[in-house]
Write a structure and sequence with these properties.
mainly alpha; Tyrosyl-Transfer RNA Synthetase; 2 domains; 3-stranded parallel beta sheet; 15 helices; binds tryptophan; binds iron/sulfur cluster
């Protein structure tokens, strides 16, 4: 096993607090994070400042959504004994490093980031012509580099941000001396996960299955899920490869079930109702232990806040170490040993 040697390597990743997480968030990111905990020293942040880059006008739900995300993380198996689980805004040094990086980041680098161009074009209901929105990948770079992370597990859409992070690290090191390692992105290969309408599962489509959905809700959502359109009648054969329920089986069902689906669907030997109930079984089996773990935190949110606060304290320590290096490299550190230029922050 290489496990123990890798534990010296650091991982950082984050999610915006969008509220309750769904299966797409789980198979696209969270299940991967859970596994990484045993191989790396992990930092996972609830990126609440990132949420403000698009949702600055109404901040009334940020805190509540941050807790929701953290509850889902704990439910899914992120373990505060293994990982540092924290809230971005509780580590103010991210803002300091963001400021310093903003001084050295050419505007052209930011204007070229694909997510920037895309979102400026696609999101019309809010004004994204802000300084913060353009600079958001710089904030993300600060998130990553302040922990000197080696590895950043992300989805496809975030790879360009990690690339920018490497460029900022290189530029900083070039100006002021070697402080930051260049992090690598670890692309999470997310299987195709359809929502109930057959499109990609996404909060904005309203087609999600939440990690908190109780068994009857899961079964109901499966019942209304679209299937292979060629299978109009029970006697029509179908094809699991073009059926969203078939996709769910591929991800969540065991081999034996998968075989029954393949044979039964193609020969019209099984009905869609039966087939969907097997998919629901697999989901319930995955979700119920999570919901069991979530209970104690839901009943007593204080427990979760305590975890987040302890995590944020550990994060502040680690971030503080890096900021000492940063200030020293820039010739802006303490004048003499023991001077308390920055308080305890
Ligand atoms: N920008 C990421 C997203 O929108 C979330 C995020 C914030 C993040 N900070 C990060 C991801 C640092 C990886 C590393 O999904
Ligand atoms: Fe889809 Fe299953 Fe119906 Fe085949 S039997 S079309 S895989 S729901």
């Amino acid at each position: 096993m290489t496990t123990s040697t890798n534990l010296t390597k650091r991982v950082l990743s984050g999610m915006r607090p969008t509220g309750k997480l769904h299966l797409g968030n789980y198979v696209g990111a969270l299940d991967n994070w859970v596994r990484m905990q045993d191989e790396y020293q992990c930092f996972f942040e609830v990126a609440d400042w990132h949420a403000l880059t698009t949702d600055y006008a109404d901040t009334s739900r940020v805190k509540e959504n941050s807790l929701e995300v953290a509850l889902d993380w704990l439910a899914a198996g992120l373990d505060p004994e293994k990982s540092v689980i924290f809230i971005q805004s509780h580590v103010p040094a991210h803002a300091e490093l963001h400021l310093l990086f903003s001084m050295i980041t050419p505007l052209g680098w930011l204007e070229r980031v694909p997510t920037y161009k895309e979102q400026r074009e696609n999101i019309k209901d809010k004004d994204l012509g802000t300084y913060g929105f353009l600079g958001y990948p710089v904030l993300q770079s600060a998130d990553i580099l302040i922990y000197k992370a080696d590895v950043v597990p992300v989805g496809e859409d975030q790879v360009a941000h990690v690339e920018l992070t490497r460029e900022i690290a290189r530029r900083f090191n070039g100006f002021y001396g070697e402080v930051f390692p260049e992090p690598k992105s670890l692309l999470t290969v997310a299987p195709k996960l359809p929502g109930s309408d057959g499109r990609k599962m996404s909060k904005s489509y309203g087609n999600t299955i939440l990690l908190t959905d109780a068994e009857p809700v899961v079964r109901q959502k499966l019942k209304t899920m679209v299937t292979d359109p060629a299978r109009v009648r029970r006697s029509d054969p179908g094809n699991p490869d073009v059926c969203p329920v078939g996709d769910l089986h591929k991800i969540f069902s065991d081999r034996a079930t998968m075989d029954k689906v393949n044979v039964g669907c193609r020969s019209a030997g099984i009905g869609c109702i039966e087939c969907k109930s097997w998919a629901a079984d697999a989901l319930v089996q995955l979700l119920s232990p999570m919901q069991e773990r979530r209970k104690k935190f839901e009943e007593n949110p204080r427990l979760a806040w305590d975890i987040l606060e302890a995590g944020s304290e550990r994060a502040r320590k680690a971030a503080g170490e890096t900021m000492k290096d940063v200030r020293a490299a820039m010739g802006m550190g303490l004048q003499y040993e023991g001077a308390d230029q920055f308080g305890s922050g």
